[in-house]
Amino acid sequence: MRPLFSLLMLLCCALVLLLNGCAPKKLQSYKPASYGSVAQSEPIATNYKAADALIAQAGGQLSPEHPVIVATLVNINALEESSPLGRLVSEQLGARFAQQGFKVVELKIRQKLYMKRNEGELMLTREIRDIAQQHDAQALIIGTYTEGADRVFINLKLTQVETNIALAAVDYALPLDMNIRSLLYRPAPM
What we know:
By secondary structure, the chain is α/β, with parallel strands linked by helices. The chain has one domain: 3-Layer(aba) Sandwich (Rossmann fold), CATH 3.40.50.10610. It has 6 helices and 6 strands. Strands 1, 2, 3, 4, 5 and 6 form a 6-stranded mixed β-sheet that branches. Helix 3 crosses helix 4 and helix 4 packs across helix 6. The relative contact order is 0.16.
């Protein structure tokens, strides 16, 4: 009887361990991402480095006293189109220029700006000049993007408003992961 009891105890212990392994895991409490972890994400960090490169290339030709305008990046294959990615990159470029001490004109609060649904701040040349004159802006950041097989290629130029001459330019690529791919989606016009 003793060996049978030991065997039953062993089976009970094994069964408890087995069932414990099948029990749902305790859910970890949700912790929102910190500013530091988000700012270190590859797309944000890469866009910030691109903004820093534009500032460095322009050197002393940019003054913190006069504002910069950041236009929405557009699809290189359809210059009248943008996407959430184009708008997000322009927002991050503007944020980085502001962090570096430059005044950045906020275009989204303008009433008379030509806004195409789902496109962003796409502007006609005369509108750029009008806005630049109203704000005494010195430069405009413009850019394009195009989707490759596994990357999105981005080109940025920092141009003088008065002359349309590029003061600085940078090319880089973001990995075409699920996040970036979802930002390239453009909802159909309503």
